[in-house]
């Protein structure tokens, strides 16, 4: 495990002297993160360990919904990260699924970083890339650690992506960057256009894996030993436990695809119990159905710390809510690196009333 990046005073002007405020664009974030997938996976691991040790504050997310636009939402994820490099802040992330009809991505986001000493915000970062990267890093970390912990089973080399938008692309990128042994990649999406676009991305990525587009979800799942769900389904659409009879590892990143009965026949891991068992996610539906939480096997941190084992004789499902502290850690990492490179766009005079009595 790598430690969190050390605090670099020169890189964080907002934390010294008069408050300043910088804006970091999506292009800067993307340029900084490209090629650093392994570092981000290590960073995400260190944050999960801090979170498991109680060194974070991660209150419930706030969902803003609209009666006139029921498929859309904006979520606020406030959080505070402890450890060597403290930072507070908020991710404000929109999901407007209708966007994709006009070619715009579904999600857009900003991340505000606050100085933990003064409370002053010191940066606003374009955060859709940060959000996708931390989600993919968390998925790749879980895929490696959960599969490595299953005794007597090879690392899954037949992988299927169910739902093939931006998050699926990032998850593939992070798995590939961490040397995932892809032999076959299955692609399934309700939209033929998405399936074709993702297949095209896979070919451009230079994967040597055989790519197969499946029209049938059951066929797709039955043929894979790693199943990645990254759809925008609001309610379960996968009900048949037989599709999981071969005990695959499942990254249930979109959280609402699986009927609770599938979870009840599986080993279930989450990133945070309270966060995941909310808002009618599949784990929440399983809790409602059974009246308890005994279907949960543990958290990812339990696996990282070796506190719980991962069975080989049942499907294993990882359902990550996606914690705001992950966004903070990746955002602070980007901010400090951009500052060290001397490329921060500081907004002069952003804070005006800096003397209480004028
Ligand atoms: N858990 C986390 O930390 C986390 C973080 C970020 C995003 N997400 C989730 O990831 C999901 C994907 O996000 P995205 O930005 O890639 O979305 P996207 O809109 O770009 O892609 C989603 C794809 O899923 C497909 N789809 C919808 N219903 C389907 C179904 N029943 N079967 C197969 N395909 C289906 C759509 O056609 C679309 O191509 C979202 O649900 C989002 O909330 C989770």
Automatic annotation (TrEMBL):
Task: Read off the Gene3D superfamilies from this record.
Answer: NAD(P)-binding Rossmann-like Domain, ornithine cyclodeaminase, domain 1
Which lineage?
Answer: Bacteria, Bacillati, Actinomycetota, Actinomycetes, Kitasatosporales
One Gene Ontology biological process: siderophore biosynthetic process
What is the protein's given name?
2,3-diaminopropionate biosynthesis protein SbnB
Q: Which GO terms describe its molecular function?
A: oxidoreductase activity, acting on the CH-NH2 group of donors, NAD or NADP as acceptor
Q: Which SUPFAM superfamilies match?
A: NAD(P)-binding Rossmann-fold domains
Question: Which species is the source of this protein?
Answer: Streptomyces poonensis
Its cellular-component GO annotations read: cytoplasm
Q: Which InterPro entries match?
A: NAD(P)-bd_dom_sf, ODC_Mu_crystall, ODC_N, SbnB
Segment forming the signal sequence: none
